[in-house]
Specification:
heterodimer, A: alpha+beta, MetI-like fold, 2 domains, 5-stranded antiparallel beta sheet, 8 strands, B: alpha/beta, Rossmann fold, 6-stranded mixed beta sheet, 4-stranded antiparallel beta sheet, binds adenosine-5'-triphosphate, binds magnesium ion, AAA+_ATPase (chain B), Phosphate ABC transporter ATP-binding protein PstB (chain B)
Amino acid sequence: MLRTGTRHAPRRRGDSGLWLAAGAVALSLAALIALLFVLLQQSARPFLPAAVAELRWQGAAGPQQALAAIVREDADELIARASEWQRRGGAYLRIARADLLERTFPPDALALRLADGRELYLRGDAHALAALPSAAGLALPGMPAELPLRRGELVEILAPNQLGPGGRLRVATQRAWAFVSGSPGGDSGSAGLLPALVGTVVLVLLMSVLVMPLGVLVALWLHEYAGRGALAQLLRAAVANLAGVPSVIYGLFGLVLFVHGLGAGLDALFHADALPSPTWGTGGLLWSALTLALLTLPVVVIAVEEGLARVPAGLRQGALALGATRAEMLWRVVLPVARPALLTALILAVARAAGEVAPLMLVGAVKYAPALPLDGEFPYLHLSKQFMHLGHSVYDLALTGADAQRDLGEAHAAALLLLIVVVALNAAAIVVRNRLRERSRELSA
Amino acid sequence: MSRLRLAGADGLQPMPGGLLDGLELALQARALSLHYAERRVLDQISLSVPRRRITALIGPSGCGKSSLLRCFNRLNDEIADCRMDGEVQVLGVDAYAADVSVPDLRRRVGMVFQKPNPFPQSVGENVAFGLRLAGLRSRLELDDRVETALRAAGLWDEVRDRLDDSALRLSAGQQQRLVIARALAVEPEVLLMDEPASMLDPISTLRLEELMVALRERYSVLLVTHNMQQAARVADYTAYMQDGRVLEFDTTDRIFTNPRLRGTEDYITGKL
Ligand SMILES: Nc1ncnc2c1ncn2[C@@H]1O[C@H](COP(=O)(O)OP(=O)(O)OP(=O)(O)O)[C@@H](O)[C@H]1O
Ligand SMILES: [Mg+2]
């Protein structure tokens, strides 16, 4: 046995590496939590019932008075929303602190919501109002006589100043649920995310169904058959570079190839009687799913190829030595062993596709689609129809909503929902993959 | 055409010196050279493996034994830049002729690898793998053939209750016998065994050797081994390889008692 004089001190390098890594993890976690917090907070805003105040302030033409919902208050000004008698949004009061004469919260203040999303602030008895038959006209102090309203037009009657924290939370939950599960009423201004939610999920599932077989086949060809020929090298370079192409370019490509090319061709062949109104020759679910499939194809190909490369050579040779053709070997041994890698590919594809909006706006996602892409009517899945998408809803609510103050909150809610959908789809795929891993670990135990 | 001459009616005994006189040949290599990319690992090899005998292939590590084995079932075809020259006959037929079906060839020339490579499937499915490939569908017949193969490999008693368990849970020695059973199940005529006992304990090794001797009745075995006693115990003939060449080929007795070459003797006696 050799014994040298000095014993080496334990290395410190590993420690600093550990700290760096832990720091990075903490930082990303903090960023994630901050993001979630902002989204939650922002998206809660439109749903939490605002207190309704009786305000008196010094206007340019003397003292003024109004009943309004407090939107925001800070050290030097107060923003409140007044009753939207005429149209949705825009009825904002901006009062400097110095001008504010009086602010009280009368317990009988009511916040009434109409089917089209408008809100009215009045004083009265909520229970009595709720008990009215739906045809009854409303007669409350402060209502303009030229805009008569009936009880039936009210979808929500609240006395917000009487609500405790629990009550506010309950109302917020109800409103949020109604927003998520409701359908938008087209131009009437009422909002709802259900169609966009369904559209997003259906789109991603359809994309997965399209991209996986194609991606696996391309990867198999590249990894198992192509060798190092010029064509294969070219394709490999193309795949590697395609992964970095901005998504909107795929959108344009999809528009030209699928909508104007394939779609118009299909119309000319099979739906000539319906022309000039297009059936397939316009943006739609199928074209969007195909565009996303193209977009995610490189990711899938690369991930699957990596998985194939990790299958032990001994297994391949074992199968071949038993008289398997190459296809049999791939199908019976290599692909089953590589299944976790296929799911990794799927997870990457879903993660990339679920958040894409830009290309979809070119090939089929719209602000408002009258029907769900998936319903009980034959053929159940409406491939040629335009559809709504959560990402598009975020964009739409944030930029073009009738009421930017409120809708930014709704945009955040849509964003939060989109995030939840993406995370849920990923989580589902990860659960399946881990199951498979466990099984193959059991098998390789 | 040298191939035609070799395959001629009585042409299956071209060994000089009449060593294999009167024996049919299972495998035969003539002027066989093999390159991986530009590197030559087999150099002008000529070797005949008689039918229904055990032939041992010995030689230092890296001399090309596994590579030579893979020439006989054309597994080198799968290695990207591997090039082979020369002739290989399997049961009297040119294995590299254009009209040879490679999967059929591999069904007739089974192989047991240096490292046990069971598929991540159940024990039963592993053994049935080749049978299913061959188109066997009947459950009853599959079960029957699986049992026969497992019995032949001396594994049946240990796994009869574990046929549905993962093959990867078997011990290394059991896995080795499992892949032997898997190779036997398709009833090949020739068996290439690449150090099948390298992972086995002495008892399993002994059982494997008994198995090989029993197999001799029906199979032609080409056995690579680093274990001189093993070669001496089971093999009828022994070939000594070095640096990609077969330097000496003779009956096992003579190789071990009275080798012609100095190099062979040094290797056998551990002086190399
Ligand atoms: N797929 C391959 N690609 C390139 N070189 C290879 C490949 N397989 C084997 N070789 C090389 O060919 C030579 C012979 O290898 P081979 O595996 O045939 O030796 P061996 O006699 O079986 O050795 P061992 O007794 O250690 O198994 C070695 O130098 C090895 O590095
Ligand atoms: Mg070897």
